[in-house]
Amino acid sequence: xxxxxxxxxxxxxxxxxxxxxxxxxxxxxxxxxxxxxxxxxxxxxxxxxxxxxxxxxxxxxxxxxxxxxxxxxxxxxxxxxxxxxxxxxxxxxxxxxxxxxxxxxxxxxxxxxxxxxxxxxxxxxxxxxxxxxxxxxxxxxxxxxxxxxxxxxxxxxxxxxxxxxxxxxxxxxxxxxxxxxxxxxxxxxxxxxxxxxxxxxxxxxxxxxxxxxx
Length: 214
What we know:
By secondary structure, the chain is α/β, with parallel strands linked by helices. It is built from 8 helices and 8 strands; from the N terminus they run E-E-H-E-E-E-H-E-H-E-H-H-E-H-H-H. The strands form 2 sheets. It has a 6-stranded mixed sheet, with helices on both faces. Strands 1-8 form a two-stranded parallel ribbon. Helix 3 (91-102) crosses helix 8 (187-205). The longest helix has 19 residues, at 187-205. The termini are far apart.
């Protein structure tokens, strides 16, 4: 059975940072799913606009990042907590966005896109929509993907629902991919790749190209 992600689900929206109550809830988790929305894909030019977080119990928080904002103390504490695994899809971008905009150094990291490329070698389709559809049998609605995330106070319900849904299924996907990686004896290799992600993110911030080319 395929489930549509358009079904109504609850989430909380916060300004600049998490509330004490939600921070305390997330602090008790050993794993969190994270995603970000920005004005574009160029770090230093395109600002971070939204950060989404979800735990195993489907508590979802969307944090609106104000233009010019340089820090979010509670978010930073969560992201840098070495006892909480952070799950992203294409962590390279999100880790760079959090570092460049809010001086957050994420640790530790699991990237479902990287894991997918190592585990699912039978397909070239490693986008979030395709991954969640195959592994979780949920069809994500991606219509709001390319939209104006900078208009923070007027983000539409559709935009916020899209953003929330992008983190809801990451932990489940991570669990499925971990099983595949272990089955194919590639889990250790994937973990080594995850540890390299902050370096690639820093290279992206500094505008280096592919320095590993000949």
